Amino acid sequence: MKAIRVHEFGDADALRYEDVPTPSAGPGEVLIKIEAIGVNPVDTYIRAGVHLIRPELPFIPGSDAAGTVLAVGAGVSSFRAGDRVYAAGSLGDAWGDCYAEQLVRRAEQFRPLPDNVSFAQGAAIGVPYGTAYRALIQRGGAKAGETVLVHGASGGVGTAALQIAAANGISTIGTAGSQRGLDLIREHGADHVLDHTKAGYLDAVGDLTGGKGPDIILEMLANVNLARDMEIAAKYGRIVVIGNRGPVEINAREAMMKELDIIGIALPNTPPDDMAAIHAALGKGLANGSLNPVIGKELPLTEAIESHHAVLRPGAYGKIVLIP
Ligand code: NAP
Question: Is 264 in the pocket of ligand 1 (CB under 6 A)?
């Protein structure tokens, strides 16, 4: 089959489209024909060799995919040929191998893809929706009636977080850095929108929350925003660090005086029971339409190099997916 492989860590040109051996399903495994592949920022860090996950070379990148079951291995009764599925592992034990025409993983690392959800949308679930749910509900403990500020709401994780919040009765303030992104997040449930390229844009948060500040902040770029997040958060607020690209200086006094919780999340650390609960909840939301992944761009798998440039460019708009 054709796949993208990395033979040496490096820039996006390290992604090579080539022939690789076709996988087959062993005992307990499921083989799928991939119809769409999700491109996540973490794919670029792993490809560059700057992530904690440093795979043996050569490797096929990509954690997220959706497609149709081709074959199941001995002992698998949960799926059969022809079923529509998405890959629902986490990077911890099921990262990689998705930038390809076929994928084999353990049966429990796939979930059924409801008929109302396209394959491209299916490729946008595993990492982005898994992360958003883990951050907002499981680690952030968000409850109906609370307010969340989603810092970076126009991307894969952010749009997912807005939808999960709306489905759970949580009010949202979302930020984006382009007019298109601002329109998108308004459309996808943000009660208020702010442009994070404008100086002083967070000054409005006090008024938008009746002077209280957000109960929860989901942070996609903590090295830029964390110090200010701590200033604007509500007393007893929770700040969930999802994305970070460098060191940051904070005044810990803010955390002390407001009894703030600053919580990190790393999806691969999610315990199996929590991961199962995440995908049970996501499955329901996808089936009833409250969760509706946004696909901003589709590219052929042969253009994986461009997808790695695009996923790091400003002006995020939902997900970028590759089509084999
Ligand atoms: P994405 O689709 O590329 O979206 C990135 C978002 O960050 C966009 O909304 C972007 O807005 C926004 N952004 C850019 N500059 C910002 C700023 N100064 N302040 C606030 N937001 C800003 O990426 P993603 O898939 O949603 O992932 C978001 C981050 O979380 C990435 O760093 C990713 O590596 C990380 N992540 C972590 C985990 C984990 O387990 N911890 C899991 C998944 C993702 P504009 O483009 O409109 O400016």
Answer: no
Give the orientation angle of helix 126-133 with respect to helix 156-167, to 10 degrees. Answer: 50
Tokens of 20: 């690789």
CB 220 near ligand 1, within 6 Å: yes
Q: What pTM was computed for the model?
A: 0.97
Q: Which atom of ligand 1 is nearest to the CA of 197?
A: 18
* Chain center to CA of 99: 17
Closest CA to 224 of 251, 203, 196: 196
Q: Which residues pair with 32 in a beta bridge?
A: 69, 103
pLDDT value at residue 235: 98
Kind plus residue range of the DSSP H or E element containing 55: none
> Tokens standing for 261?
């919780």
- Residues 6 or more apart from 138 whose CB is under 8 A from it? 270, 274, 277, 278
Residue-range domains of the chain with CATH: 2-125+293-323 (3.90.180.10), 128-267 (3.40.50.720)
Cα(58)–Cα(110) distance, rounded to whole angstroms? 24
Residue nearest to atom 14 of ligand 1 (CA): 152
CA 110 to ligand 1 center in whole angstroms: 25
Report the C-alpha gap between 117 and 102 in whole angstroms. 20
Q: Is 35 helix (H, G, I), strand (E, B) or coil?
A: strand
> Is 276 exposed, middle or buried, given 0-12, 13-18 or 19+ CB atoms closer than 10 A?
middle
Cα of 259 vs centre of ligand 1, distance in Å, is 26
Mean pLDDT by 10 residues, the chain (324 residues): 98 98 96 98 96 92 97 98 90 77 94 97 97 98 98 97 98 98 96 97 97 98 97 98 96 97 94 93 97 98 98 97 98
Atom of ligand 1 nearest to the CA of 159: 26
SS3 sequence, 103-144?
EEEEHHHEEECCCCCCHHHHCCCHHHHHHHHHHHHHHCCCCC
Per-residue tokens: 133: 């749910």
